[in-house]
Amino acid sequence: MSKSDIWSLGSLLYEMITNENLFNYYNFIYIKIYEKNELLNELINKKIKTRFKELKYFFNFFFQFDLKKRKDIYEIYQESVKIYNFYSNKLKNKEKILKKHNFNMN
């Protein structure tokens, strides 16, 4: 998988999570011309709530203008497993709390 595919994958994941396009014609051209990571981070932060900071960090794997800094698919896979485990454990802990207080899960 090429580094440009990694960028596209990041865009696709963002759209799947937020149900919105990350880029429109105007901000994409601006970002591309000026290589503005700050604007990218602002767009992502606006949609991804602070409680999902792991996802915000994860998007940095995809959206790097310097190809040497952009992660490869193996690194992305490793990080996605970490994120999955993090949120899975978080849900399990909340489930335990609910069961402890006799809340019906169904």
Automatic annotation (TrEMBL):
<dbReference type="InterPro" id="IPR011009">
    <property type="entry name" value="Kinase-like_dom_sf"/>
</dbReference>
<feature type="domain" description="Protein kinase">
    <location>
        <begin position="1"/>
        <end position="87"/>
    </location>
</feature>
<dbReference type="InterPro" id="IPR000719">
    <property type="entry name" value="Prot_kinase_dom"/>
</dbReference>
<dbReference type="GO" id="GO:0004672">
    <property type="term" value="F:protein kinase activity"/>
</dbReference>
<protein>
    <recommendedName>
        <fullName>Protein kinase domain-containing protein</fullName>
    </recommendedName>
</protein>
<dbReference type="GO" id="GO:0005524">
    <property type="term" value="F:ATP binding"/>
</dbReference>
